[in-house]
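pinging the channel bc i need a second pair of eyes. not urgent but kinda urgent?? the chain im working w is below, pasted from the shared doc
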Amino acid sequence: MIQLSLDRVRSWFTEEHQKRLAPLAEFAYGELQNAQKDAFGKGWMSWPVDNHDQLFSDIDKIAADFRSKSDVTVVIGIGGSYLGARSVLSMVHPAFTSADHQVIFAGQQLSPTYHAHLLKYLDSHEVTVVVVSKSGTTLEPSAVFHTFRDYVEKRYGQAEAASRICAITDANKGSLRGFADEKGYSTLPIPDDIGGRYSVLSAVGLLPMALSGVDYRKVMKGAANIRESFAKLAVTENPAVTYALARHVLYQQGFAAEALVTYEPRVADFAGWWQQLFGESQGKDGIGLYPTMLQYTTDLHSMGQYVQDARKILVETVLDVFIDDAPELKVPVGLDEKNKYLENVSYAKLQQVAVESVMIAHSEAGVPNMRIEAKGDAETLYGELVYFFEVACAFGGYLMGINPFDQPGVEAYKSEMKARLQ
């Protein structure tokens, strides 16, 4: 369940704003729902309710096979090919627990130290590899994949190595598709009409979920549930639309950045996925809020002074998550006199007092604060949050008059790197 609170942003985004923007909201939402407009990027919209029986069967088969022959799977990808998968594993799995099958991410950067240390670590484990790339030509995952492919081939031999590698790539074309077919790898498709940053509910995210023991069907159900609830609402009653409208008005008022604020460490990686989603979708044509993230209360002791007292360029959106498996924990009794007020207070209460106090202090200092409250079991809630923010992001792009599904600026550094290396 997701609820949006605008109590601490009403000084900047009023109900009158919402009324005046209603015609624009209707138009932008119509653009989002128009199946012919930017059709190449809208497959995610119906994806949670489409029939995926064959895909799920293939995912289950590969996951079972890899889990039977290895205790570690290295998932190689960058951007949308890894951020979503990393975020769901972080949100679902409790901290400090040892999974019976470990998923480790690689290829999201080019550090020689990281990858050399990972290769050494793998020497004492049984290994399988998943490479995620639609084209197979993105430099970072290409270099790392072939390094790890070479490692697996030398360790297990060509035939056995082929049975330990899965490529998630374009169904019909591309460099990786041709290479995987030639080598005899198992493969899963990336849909033509779903871009990387919107792809976490496709095989890109579902196979890592299955490998790590996440109930990905519950994740999909969560996304389907919120899609169904949105369909029953008028455009102006849709919380994802209202959130996007508030961001739009705040940007027009001169705010330059939005921080997604999390209080639960297990949700911090989700903020990383959110950052890419909004950064690539809306950061173009010289416009767009700069998406960043803050993890409170930790960052209150490093960035809190800046947020409270510096130039007012920042909007905070508090993602306040309540996951059903949260344990009960209280401060013990027998404290010293100055800390006695904390005796027998639950950590849940401490956390909520922190959330509310920070929102009051920051908003009264001139920092708009929105709050998105999300409650439920981890898998269902993850699916709901993904779909909520995808709708808000795509709709917000149409509000701004941009295409929220392309990323022309990403190609600039890639072209420069290739020119220097060739």
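so Residues 378-400 form the longest helix (23 residues). and The chain has a mean pLDDT of 96. — does that match what u expected or am i reading it wrong
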